[in-house]
């Protein structure tokens, strides 16, 4: 039943493709999103990037997008359709589009393809990603300063490397302030279900956490924090409007500058498949204005942000794994490959990683 | 003690939308109509409720709007299946798809806007009595509506003549028609009641549970409500029990995780669904009992032969 529904919805989404006037001299840039652009989270932020491209490059480009495209085989059709509709550059924004893009990119060698968060490249397929873990280190430091009980609640979606990396980075940040800092982790097995996220936040607060962190997409958890007069961090977009007294900062994605530079390169004819992992220093990972915290905490957060922008990696040794075995030696920096495949916790996390 | 009260409150909030939507669908199915559009009506209620609340600033107007939008949206289903005698399963499914798409379109300008929240009941002195005060006198208004609704539907279906007539239509629309009962009119009203309930459940989501609008925020709760009706073998009090069991297992597994109980979280997350399957198996063991409870003409189109 659910499969059928998803298939139907994808078809519906495909039909709702923004019909834009064809103009031969304009470059057509296209996007594929896995969620609705109305999620006010991940897909929403990518779409904001698309709008920035329209704004910055004006008459030189036209854009189109497909939303609600399910990951997996169905994505093939979405990419192929866009390629046939004369899109010159196509951005696939979700990990699960990887194989579909690889396949379609081979079929359309003249179209430029870009894939977010994946690891497969090709002659006309580049990849891009953002180092969200850099921001999570800062969140960890703030949490350790602001939590009275030294206990944070962490709401997470699925045990994939991206998420595990975030938890580890958060804890390393927290431990740098308070070595005994603890975290309680709840997996809701969904990227997006406001009700479940709110329930998880309530459960974590009830069990003594006084700060909430999330790696899910809705504003629900922050709203619970607001109601309980406690604190938390936003995700993907600035959620201050939903929790004016609870949000400390928000880890936001800014894809606009990257998209503008790539579409510009396509216009200039200088586009080449690339492999970039953007971070705070590129402006792709941003922390929303620091609010609801004393000045000294704010100053610390800003200093850390600056240090990371200057090239320092939060995964710098000495770091031990959860079982106490050494991982990074003093001064050793984790390589990107290990980070992208991360499937273990660092020391100090009292939780079993679902495998 | 405090944590127990908080857990119970969380369970009540999680169970309320399921209960309301399922009670509405129960009445619809008791009249012999299967409306698979609960999810669509719920999400329309959510966007309608949020929109009205956001634009007027009054959560009560929002709640009322949610009910009206749900009822009007179900009217579409009623016209198709009752007056035009289309296939109920297909029409219900398309109602869900239409609702999900349409709500997203209507709600575009509401994304990222904080809405209004329906305040909890707060009676001076009484609401601050430990434990009982908060549980019985300190919840959101929709919680009380849901309990009253269950009792009212129970009374209506089994203690009133109209309720008896409705059930007889569900069991055999041809016999009811032969007796001169206005089958189509009854069914219209039942379907619209179901729509109003689903709308109210949606309003609870966007005005109480998580006061915001985001696309697809019902996240499958309409389907769970549909399952609850079968789970409850079309009995209102069992719907109540089912909704709360479902809520309790769901909230319980979150607490188990936060507590650090070393069970895979994927397993814990699937527990509520597993519980549904187990109960369904237990119930359907007795074939005669299941037959007795199932409305016999459920899902069959009815065309009066004059």
From TrEMBL, chain A:
<keyword id="KW-0732">Signal</keyword>
<feature type="signal peptide">
    <location>
        <begin position="1"/>
        <end position="23"/>
    </location>
</feature>
<dbReference type="InterPro" id="IPR003760">
    <property type="entry name" value="PnrA-like"/>
</dbReference>
<dbReference type="InterPro" id="IPR052910">
    <property type="entry name" value="ABC-Purine-Binding"/>
</dbReference>
<protein>
    <submittedName>
        <fullName>BMP family ABC transporter substrate-binding protein</fullName>
    </submittedName>
</protein>
<dbReference type="Pfam" id="PF02608">
    <property type="entry name" value="Bmp"/>
</dbReference>
<feature type="domain" description="ABC transporter substrate-binding protein PnrA-like">
    <location>
        <begin position="28"/>
        <end position="308"/>
    </location>
</feature>
<dbReference type="InterPro" id="IPR028082">
    <property type="entry name" value="Peripla_BP_I"/>
</dbReference>
From TrEMBL, chain B:
<feature type="transmembrane region" description="Helical">
    <location>
        <begin position="33"/>
        <end position="54"/>
    </location>
</feature>
<keyword id="KW-1003">Cell membrane</keyword>
<keyword id="KW-1133">Transmembrane helix</keyword>
<feature type="transmembrane region" description="Helical">
    <location>
        <begin position="241"/>
        <end position="261"/>
    </location>
</feature>
<feature type="transmembrane region" description="Helical">
    <location>
        <begin position="267"/>
        <end position="283"/>
    </location>
</feature>
<dbReference type="Pfam" id="PF02653">
    <property type="entry name" value="BPD_transp_2"/>
</dbReference>
<feature type="transmembrane region" description="Helical">
    <location>
        <begin position="188"/>
        <end position="210"/>
    </location>
</feature>
<keyword id="KW-0812">Transmembrane</keyword>
<keyword id="KW-0472">Membrane</keyword>
<feature type="transmembrane region" description="Helical">
    <location>
        <begin position="6"/>
        <end position="28"/>
    </location>
</feature>
<feature type="transmembrane region" description="Helical">
    <location>
        <begin position="60"/>
        <end position="82"/>
    </location>
</feature>
<dbReference type="InterPro" id="IPR001851">
    <property type="entry name" value="ABC_transp_permease"/>
</dbReference>
<feature type="transmembrane region" description="Helical">
    <location>
        <begin position="216"/>
        <end position="234"/>
    </location>
</feature>
<feature type="transmembrane region" description="Helical">
    <location>
        <begin position="141"/>
        <end position="158"/>
    </location>
</feature>
<protein>
    <submittedName>
        <fullName>ABC transporter permease</fullName>
    </submittedName>
</protein>
<feature type="transmembrane region" description="Helical">
    <location>
        <begin position="89"/>
        <end position="111"/>
    </location>
</feature>
């Amino acid at each position: 039943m659910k499969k059928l529904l998803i298939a139907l919805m994808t078809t519906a989404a495909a039909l709702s493709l923004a019909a834009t006037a064809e103009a031969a001299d304009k470059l057509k840039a296209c996007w594929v999103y896995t969620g609705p652009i109305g999620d006010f989270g991940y897909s929403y932020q990518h779409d904001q990037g698309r709008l920035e491209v329209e704004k910055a490059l004006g008459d030189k480009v036209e854009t189109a997008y497909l939303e609600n495209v399910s990951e997996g085989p169905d994505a093939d059709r979405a990419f192929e359709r866009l390629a046939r509709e004369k899109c010159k550059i196509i951005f696939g924004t979700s990990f699960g589009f990887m194989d579909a893009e690889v396949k379609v990119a081979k079929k359309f060698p003249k179209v430029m393809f870009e894939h977010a968060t994946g690891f497969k490249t090709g002659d006309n397929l580049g990849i891009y990603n953002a180092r969200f873990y850099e921001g999570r280190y800062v969140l960890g430091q703030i949490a350790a300063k602001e939590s009275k009980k030294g206990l944070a609640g962490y709401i997470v979606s699925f045990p994939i490397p991206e998420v595990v990396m975030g938890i580890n980075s958060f804890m390393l940040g927290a431990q740098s302030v308070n070595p005994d800092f603890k975290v309680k982790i709840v997996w809701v097995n969904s990227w997006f279900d406001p009700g479940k996220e709110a329930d998880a936040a309530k459960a974590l607060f009830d069990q003594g956490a006084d700060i909430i962190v999330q790696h899910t997409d809705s504003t629900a958890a922050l709203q619970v924090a607001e109601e309980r007069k406690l604190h938390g961090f936003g995700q993907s977009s600035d959620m201050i409007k939903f929790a004016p007294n609870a949000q400390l900062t928000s880890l936001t994605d800014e894809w606009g500058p990257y998209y503008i530079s790539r579409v510009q390169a396509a216009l200039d004819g200088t586009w080449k498949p690339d492999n970039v992992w953007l971070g705070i220093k590129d402006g792709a990972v941003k922390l929303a204005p620091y609010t609801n915290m004393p000045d000294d905490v704010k100053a610390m957060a800003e200093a850390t942000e600056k240090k990371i922008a200057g090239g320092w990696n939060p995964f710098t040794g000495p770091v031990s794994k959860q079982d106490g075995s050494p991982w990074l030696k003093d001064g050793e920096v984790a390589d990107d490959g290990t980070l992208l495949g991360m499937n273990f916790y660092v020391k100090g996390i009292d939780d079993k990683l679902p495998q | 003690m405090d944590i127990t009260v908080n857990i119970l409150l969380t369970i009540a909030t999680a169970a309320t939308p399921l209960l309301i939507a399922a009670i509405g669908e129960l009445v619809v199915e008791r009249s012999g109509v299967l409306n698979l559009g609960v999810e669509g009506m719920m999400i329309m209620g959510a966007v309608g409720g949020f929109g009205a609340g956001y634009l007027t600033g009054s959560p009560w107007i929002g709640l009322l709007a949610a009910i009206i939008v749900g009822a009007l949206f179900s009217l579409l289903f009623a016209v198709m299946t009752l007056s035009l005698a289309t296939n109920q399963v297909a029409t219900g499914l398309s109602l869900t798809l239409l609702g999900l798409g349409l709500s997203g379109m209507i709600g575009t300008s509401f994304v990222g806007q904080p809405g209004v929240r329906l305040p909890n009941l707060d009676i001076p002195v009484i609401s601050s009595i430990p434990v009982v005060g908060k549980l019985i006198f300190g919840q959101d208004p929709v919680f009380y509506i849901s309990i009253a609704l269950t009792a009212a539907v129970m009374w209506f279906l089994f203690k009133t003549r109209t309720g008896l007539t409705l059930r007889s239509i569900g069991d055999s629309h041809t016999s009811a028609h032969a007796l001169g009962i206005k089958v189509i009119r009854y069914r219209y009203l039942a379907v619209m009641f179901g729509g109003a309930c689903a709308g109210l459940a949606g309003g609870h989501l966007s005005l109480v549970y998580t006061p915001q609008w985001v696309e697809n925020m019902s996240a499958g709760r309409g389907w769970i409500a549909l399952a609850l009706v079968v789970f409850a073998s079309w009995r209102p009090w069992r719907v109540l029990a089912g909704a709360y069991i479902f809520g309790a297992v769901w909230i319980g597994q979150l607490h188990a995780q936060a507590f650090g109980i070393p069970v895979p979280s994927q397993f814990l997350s699937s527990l509520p669904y597993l519980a549904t399957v187990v109960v369904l198996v237990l119930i359907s063991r007795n074939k005669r009992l299941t037959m007795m409870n199932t409305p016999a003409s459920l899902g069959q189109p009815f065309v009066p032969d004059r």
